[in-house]
């Protein structure tokens, strides 16, 4: 064991030493300098996560550069709920404030969906001149990342880079397709094509029901929970820009809801958790580790998974002999389907660590040095096997150990600009999640036929606007759901 550990440690040291050698450039390297970094996430001046993920190797390679972190998150309420007169600061507004302050950060690390705000506010410097000067090669970066970030700017310039990303893919059970005599899905299919396949694969009744497709492999999910996978690539937003009103009473939302509701009415997509779990009752004396996993239980032929889900699926197959009644699943993946009006655009692509240079940076040289360092080939090679995400350099994206699959499906897509809107507003409107509870009730009313789809959306719009007004007047107070659903239920803040 000690020999193995020593060997692994030696490989790591040699790899880091190689990286360090790649960063040496001039006699100025021995001069002590400070590089200031601000983020829109994380807590504390010494952000351990950011240091571990983004700067640790760089600091090892450049001991003369001292990293300083600037906190922008409001950590006053980590251990207590805000009082009636207290308001949590918006981390993005705080970030924009410090970027323009007297001692501004050189680098900002932010999320993909937050970049447009910083670009439109002229707070980020384009990286193109620096890349040209250093002949920094971007041809190996997957277009999902490079073109995705570049597409956020109106001038076509690149205002940030990220060394890692995660994205979804469509996984399918080869045997279920073969048994049904149906061709397996391929890349670049539309949602309508996938739904057509799902209809051909769906069969059986009750506990024996087999579905062709589900938005989630977990049986505690349902169509409503996963709706953003379908609606976000269409550019459908739930709120206006300041979350003062909803934006759902329109033809686009009606068309999207109608399509999904029709599929659920036809029982082609799995129904709500309560309805389905009634059919999933297992023998309480017999342990089934996949009781609530529709894909591993063979109840669903196709579903959406993330990169990290593959480890769980691979482990299940490797331990099949230890799992009673489980047969290893032969599977592969294809790209997540997209809409004909937005080909290749998919939701839930995560680029949570995009690095950009502040227009007011005092140390541009070292800022670019760090960005270049962790977006280069050597860093990608070192981190490719240790990251829970995929590295952005295509040559180092390989299938996980022991598996063979169409890994290109994870990155041959484009990111949806509309991301999780709740992430944008929940810090300043802690109760905003309650608006979605209203939508769930209206969606089910439309499924059951007690309301038309448009009437359900109108009701959600009207009651949602009233709820948002209540939240603005009393951000930290409880929400009286009785005003909207006829039964007084207080939703606590936070």
From TrEMBL:
Keyword Calcium part of the UniProt annotation: no
Location of the protein in the cell: Cell envelope
Entry-linked Pfam families: SBP_bac_1
UniProt main location, coarse: other
Gene3D superfamilies in alphabetical order: Periplasmic binding protein-like II
CDD domains assigned: PBP2_TMBP_like
Signal sequence annotation: 1-20
Family note: Belongs to the bacterial solute-binding protein 1 family.
Name the record gives this protein: Sugar ABC transporter substrate-binding protein
Species of the source: Paenibacillus contaminans
């Amino acid at each position: 064991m000690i020999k193995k550990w020593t060997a692994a440690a030696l490989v790591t040291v040699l790899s880091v030493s190689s990286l360090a050698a790649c960063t040496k450039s001039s006699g100025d390297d021995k001069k002590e300098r400070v590089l200031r970094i601000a983020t829109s996430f994380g807590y504390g001046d010494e952000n351990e996560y950011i240091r571990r993920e983004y700067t640790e190797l760089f600091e090892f390679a450049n001991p003369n550069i001292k990293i300083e972190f600037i906190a922008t998150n409001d950590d006053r309420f980590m251990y207590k709920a805000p009082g009636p007169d207290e308001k949590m600061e918006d981390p993005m507004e705080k970030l924009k404030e410090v970027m323009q302050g007297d001692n501004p950060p050189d680098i900002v690390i932010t999320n993909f969906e937050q970049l447009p705000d910083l670009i439109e506010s002229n707070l980020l410097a384009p990286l193109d001149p620096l890349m040209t000067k250093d002949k920094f090669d971007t041809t190996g970066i997957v277009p999902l990342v490079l073109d995705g970030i570049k597409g956020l700017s109106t001038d076509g310039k690149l205002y940030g880079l990220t060394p890692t990303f995660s994205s979804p893919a469509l996984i399918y059970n080869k045997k279920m397709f073969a048994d049904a005599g149906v061709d397996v899905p391929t890349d670049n299919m539309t949602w309508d094509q996938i739904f057509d396949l799902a209809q051909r694969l769906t069969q059986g009744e009750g506990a024996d029901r087999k579905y062709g497709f589900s938005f989630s492999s977990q049986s505690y999910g349902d169509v409503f929970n996963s709706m953003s996978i379908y609606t976000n690539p269409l550019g459908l937003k739930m709120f206006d820009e300041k979350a003062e009103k909803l934006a759902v009473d329109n033809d686009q939302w009606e068309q999207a809801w109608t399509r999904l509701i029709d599929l659920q009415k036809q029982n082609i997509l799995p129904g709500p958790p309560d309805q389905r779990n009634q059919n999933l009752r297992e023998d309480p004396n017999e342990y089934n580790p996949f009781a609530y996993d529709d894909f591993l239980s063979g109840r669903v032929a196709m579903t959406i998974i993330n990169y990290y889900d593959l480890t769980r699926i691979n482990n299940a197959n490797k331990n099949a002999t230890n799992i009673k009644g489980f047969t290893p699943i032969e599977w592969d993946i294809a790209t997540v389907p997209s809409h004909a009006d937005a080909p290749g655009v998919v939701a839930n692509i995560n680029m949570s660590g995009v690095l950009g240079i502040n227009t007011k940076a005092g140390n541009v040289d070292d800022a670019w040095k760090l960005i270049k360092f962790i977006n280069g080939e050597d860093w990608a090679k070192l981190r490719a096997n240790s990251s829970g995400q995929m590295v952005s350099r295509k040559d180092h994206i390989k299938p996980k150990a022991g598996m063979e699959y169409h890994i290109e499906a994870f990155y041959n897509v484009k990111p949806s600009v509309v991301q999780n809107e709740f992430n944008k507003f929940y810090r300043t409107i802690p109760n905003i999640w309650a608006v979605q509870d209203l939508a769930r009730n209206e969606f089910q009313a439309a499924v059951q036929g007690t309301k038309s789809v448009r009437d359900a959306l109108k009701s959600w719009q009207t009651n949602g606007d009233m709820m948002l007004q209540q939240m603005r007047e009393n951000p930290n107070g409880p929400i009286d759901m009785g005003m909207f659903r006829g039964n007084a239920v207080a939703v606590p803040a936070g």
